[in-house]
TrEMBL record:
Name of protein: Phenylacetic acid degradation bifunctional protein PaaZ
Gene: paaZ
Keyword Oxidoreductase included in the entry's annotation: yes
Native organism: Prauserella salsuginis
Keywords: Oxidoreductase
InterPro entries linked: Ald_DH/histidinol_DH, Ald_DH_C, Ald_DH_N, Aldehyde_DH_dom, HotDog_dom_sf, MaoC-like_dom, PaaN-DH
Domain of life: Bacteria
UniProt cross-references to NCBIfam families, sorted A to Z: PaaN-DH (TIGR02278), PRK11903.1 (NF008868)
Family, per entry: Belongs to the enoyl-CoA hydratase/isomerase family. Belongs to the aldehyde dehydrogenase family.
Length: 687
């Protein structure tokens, strides 16, 4: 990916961070703004994007990156994500070393770096398992639009022809970019990453490792360090903008004239006053009480509380408020703050961030009292308390009737204990956050959990229910998972950064295609009922993937079903349901009116009709899908089966692929008695 060549704009200082645009590294013009080590206060680098042609960068992504990605199938893109994840895993120590300068402990760094790599690998796996080895995604089933079946429709999704512009926050300089890159790349859309300046040096290193690997196609990834400048002036209806940061900034970006004018897809993950709710059953001495306190302290101290998913509002039953406060105090008193190499909690990302947290704390203290910590003083181990951006964990106890706990987010190691007296009240309190990314309920009472989850769900993107059963394997309150939505309503931005395949489809256009079955088959590459079939003297099971075509079919039968067949199947399988064995009882059944064949007997007989028994390209049958029994089969009925090649999916890095067959079993009157898909593994080449 690129040749790694570097140019200087305007004779810049070598201390400036580089951007990677247009296929080469480039430094911005001027002296740039300083970026400091969060622990020592020493200058790490300077950052400037002055002189970088943002329009040209977007054009490069559209002209070079987009076409290169769209030539690849979903499976090929997934394989590249897997390779990239493996490559970055080998270079984690380089990222950890720089991550320490952001104030992160080793554990924090693993959370960021390993979490980001995990997203790549998760999307690689989902892409291979859930997406076709094709360049078009079929969304939903065929929609019949006419009585005769000659006019049908289906939704298809194709990659947008623009660039995914990704504006990231300072707190996760590795995970943040990778969680946006993965779904965009898998969709076939190039990315332009704009990291927050405070920690951009770590993102620059990440992109350097990616570029040097040569794994991704040129143009599929670009980086701009520094201000976004006029970047958004140049976005079009084919671009996507994803943002992580404050709600105020999200509102400004969302209302940008170019975004409004072209209805550009805009995804935001913004402020979030996440809550955790302790159930009334979780009294001191229970597993859930201990889990709640442990989780609360962890969320306050991991990444020094600089997580968009951290617990800001800790709701506890009023009768347990003092117990929780005391248990949390004891835990927090054991937390050491200082040099990330040895302390439990490191520094905030910058001195400016520390001052911002202190300002927010002052607002919170108008409605709460400090239970633990001193916002203005902290004992620091192995570092300078003033030169570094250190802050003590601060636990407050507040009044949930006041507005401040539900409106002010101190983005640091800060949480507020808030009492409640009933299930309905705590649900109402949770909703006062006006939209959150994540919430948790810690309880052993399943009924309480249900009431809270269903009551609070409209205000949350994700809810964790933690108890003694799932605690050992739970990923915790604050860990977004690539399989799930990472976003939330209202204040949280209204977006979804991940969300599994939904995150991929966010970067694609869903289009309804209306056509004849034959045309729809050609457009989608999936055989559509009503499209022509091709029958020849060669059984389709005798064809390798190289020879097989969508629409190839075999018609086999008829086979008459006898009473002896039904009785033997009942005895052989042990399925002696009365409709198959008791003539008098079966006659009373309003659906059958007499003995009928087992549905699975029908399927078995159909297989005996269409299977070609000799060894050959078909290696295995690995399942049936969408099976429906439509018309009862009675002794004396004759069956015919039509098997049609519906979809062909070669597997990457394997000498076989998957074939989906449409099976339609009909009776002598031509009525379908069973319909289903047969799934087989077929060799790519004939032996």
């Amino acid at each position: 990916m690129g040749n790694g060549a570097e140019s200087n704009a305007g004779g810049s200082s070598p201390g400036l961070l580089r951007s990677y645009v247009g296929g080469h590294w480039q430094r911005g013009a001027g002296d740039g703004a300083p970026v400091c080590d969060a622990v020592t206060g020493a200058e790490v680098a300077r950052v400037s994007s002055d002189g970088i042609d943002m329009a040209a960068a977007l054009d490069h992504g559209r002209r070079v990156g987009g076409p290169a990605l769209r030539e690849l199938t979903f499976h090929q893109r997934a394989a590249l994500l897997k390779a990239l994840g493996s490559h970055l895993r080998e270079h984690r120590d380089e990222l950890y070393a720089l991550s320490a300068r952001t104030g992160a402990t080793r554990g924090d760094s693993k959370f960021d770096v390993d979490g980001g790599i995990g997203v790549l690998l998760a999307y690689a796996s989902k892409g291979k398992r859930e997406l076709p080895n094709d360049t078009v995604y079929i969304d939903g089933e065929v929609e019949p639009l006419s009585k005769g079946g000659t006019f049908v429709a289906r939704h298809v999704a194709t990659p947008l022809r623009g660039v995914a512009v990704q504006i990231n926050a300072f707190n996760f300089p590795v995970w943040g970019p990778l969680e946006k890159l993965a779904p965009a790349f898998l969709a076939g859309m190039p990315s332009l990453i704009k990291p927050a300046s405070q920690t951009a040096y770590l993102t620059e290193k990440l992109v350097e490792l990616i570029v040097e690997s040569g794994i991704l196609p040129e143009g599929s990834l670009q980086l701009v360090c520094g201000s976004a400048g006029d970047l958004l002036d140049h976005v079009t209806e084919q671009d996507v903008v994803s943002f992580t940061g404050s709600a105020d900034t999200a509102r400004k970006l969302r209302s940008h004239p170019a975004i409004v004018r072209s209805a550009v897809r805009f995804n935001a993950e913004a402020d979030s006053l996440n809550c955790s709710i302790l159930g009334p059953d979780a009294t001191p001495g229970t597993a859930e009480f201990d889990l709640y306190v442990d989780q609360l302290v962890t969320e306050m101290t991991v990444k020094a509380g600089q997580k968009c998913t951290a617990i800001r509002r800790a709701f506890v039953p009023a009768a347990l408020l003092d117990d929780v406060a005391e248990a949390a105090r004891q835990r927090l008193a054991k937390v050491t703050v200082g040099d990330p190499a040895s302390a439990d909690m490191g520094a905030l990302a910058s001195l400016e961030q520390r001052e911002e947290v202190r300002r927010s704390l002052k607002a919170l203290q108008s409605a709460a009292t400090v239970v633990f910590g001193d916002p203005e003083h902290v004992e620091v181990a192995g570092a300078d308390a003033e030169r570094g951006a250190f802050l003590s964990p601060v636990l407050l106890s507040g009044d949930p009737a006041r507005a401040e706990p539900h409106e002010v987010e101190a983005f640091g190691p800060v949480s507020t204990l808030l009492p409640y007296t009933s299930t309905q009240q705590v649900v109402e309190f949770a909703a006062r956050g006006k939209g959150s990314l994540a919430g948790s309920v810690v309880t052993g009472d399943k009924e309480f959990a249900r009431e809270v989850v269903l009551g609070a769900a409209p205000w949350h993107g994700r809810l964790l229910v933690l108890d003694a059963d799932d605690a050992r394997e739970s990923t915790g309150h604050g860990s977004p998972m690539p399989q799930l939505v990472h976003g939330g309503p209202g204040r949280a931005g209204g977006g979804e950064e991940m969300g599994g395949i939904r995150g991929v489809l966010h970067h694609m256009q869903r289009t309804a295609v209306q056509a004849s079955p034959a045309v729809l088959t050609e457009v989608t590459g999936r055989w559509t009922q009503g499209a022509p079939r091709t029958t020849t003297d060669v059984h389709p099971f005798r064809k390798s993937l190289a020879e097989l075509r969508v629409g190839d079919a075999v018609v086999a039968g008829p086979r008459t079903v006898t009473a002896e067949d039904v009785a033997h199947f009942a005895e052989f399988t042990g399925d002696t349901f009365y409709a198959h064995t008791d003539e008098a009882a079966a006659a009373e059944n309003p659906l059958f009116g007499g003995i009928v064949a087992h549905g699975y007997l029908v399927v078995s007989l159909a297989a005996g009709l269409f299977v070609s028994p000799e060894p050959g390209p078909v290696l295995a049958n690995y399942g049936l899908e969408n099976l429906r029994f439509l018309t009862p089969v009675k002794p004396g009925d004759s069956l015919t089966v039509t098997l049609t090649c519906k979809q062909i999916t070669p597997r990457e890095n394997a000498d076989y692929g998957e074939v989906r067959w449409d099976a339609d079993v009909t009776n002598a009157d031509g009525d379908s008695v069973a319909k289903y898909d047969v799934l087989t593994l077929v060799a790519k080449e004939a032996a």
